[in-house]
Design a protein that fits this description.
By secondary structure, the protein is of the alpha/beta class. It has a single domain, classed as Undecaprenyl pyrophosphate synthetase (3-Layer(aba) Sandwich), CATH 3.40.1180.10. α2 crosses α3 and α4 runs parallel beside α6. The chain has a six-stranded parallel β-sheet with strand order 3-4-2-1-5-6, with helices on both faces.
Length: 244
């Protein structure tokens, strides 16, 4: 892995970068390999990107690992992905701790195997006090279902009298989302050239800069991340105001 120092002094990183990791299957297909090989290389890209994000000064990194729609994939492929998740949770936690990474898993856990849920709980507890960078991995996550769950919880609290309907505003809605306490992403990157959000952080990304890069996820690394940050700084973020 090329170090950030070797690439040059980067501009100050956005506080929160979110990435839709796409292209594992196409990477494998282009090489005549099974899709599982692409997922394994994608896992290596995760490790490179987490290390690079910490070096670049990103405080929050959110990775879309497995959507609630991905259960529709062939059972063997889903099994491979869950196996990679288990491997990551069993073998990479020490490195996360050593590098000051705090792990949080976003998404519904009811469809995950009980041993995976236990590993997630252990990993989150083990890394809870780390403060260099917060790594959020979205597993069995879908933004629309997240918002429906938040709405149900708000209605329940209003009916119970613990929340007033008059108190509802954007900040209050944010407190009911899975990302409560996490700043909204400044930059959302999708790899592989596809140009859609695919039900990822729809509420949270309302004012994020969107970036679609052609690089397939298994080939993504710190140089790609730095290039995205440099492009981010060339854009003017107006939040609805008139530009200069």
């Amino acid at each position: 892995m090329r170090s950030v120092a070797a690439i040059g002094s980067p501009p100050q990183a956005p506080a929160h970068v979110a990435i839709i990791m796409d292209g594992n299957g196409r990477w494998a297909q282009a090489r005549g390999l099974p899709r599982s090989a692409g997922h394994r290389q994608g896992a290596e890209a995760v490790k490179r990107t987490v290390r690079g994000a910490g070096e670049l000064g990103i405080r929050h990194l959110t990775l879309f690992g497995f959507s609630s729609e991905n259960w529709k994939r062939p059972a063997a492929e889903v099994g491979d992905l869950m196996g990679l998740l288990r491997h990551f949770l069993r073998t990479e936690i020490k490195e996360l701790v050593d590098n000051g990474v705090r792990l949080k898993v976003l998404g519904e856990r009811n469809r995950l195997a009980s041993d995976i849920v236990e590993l997630i709980d252990q990993a989150e507890a083990t890394t809870h006090s780390n403060a260099r960078i917060a790594l959020n991995i979205a597993i069995n996550y879908g933004s629309r279902s997240e918002m429906v769950a938040a709405l149900r919880a708000m209605v329940k609290d209003i009916e119970a009298g613990t929340l007033s309907a008059d108190a509802l505003d954007e900040a209050m809605v944010g407190r009911y989302l899975m990302t409560a306490g996490i700043p909204d992403p400044d930059l959302v990157i999708r790899t592989s050239g596809e140009k859609r959000l695919s039900n990822f952080l729809l509420w949270q990304s309302a004012y994020a800069e969107l970036m679609f890069v052609d690089t397939l996820w298994p080939d993504f690394g710190v140089a790609n991340l730095q290039a995205c940050i440099e492009e981010y700084h060339r854009r003017e973020r107006r939040y609805g105001a008139v530009g200069g």
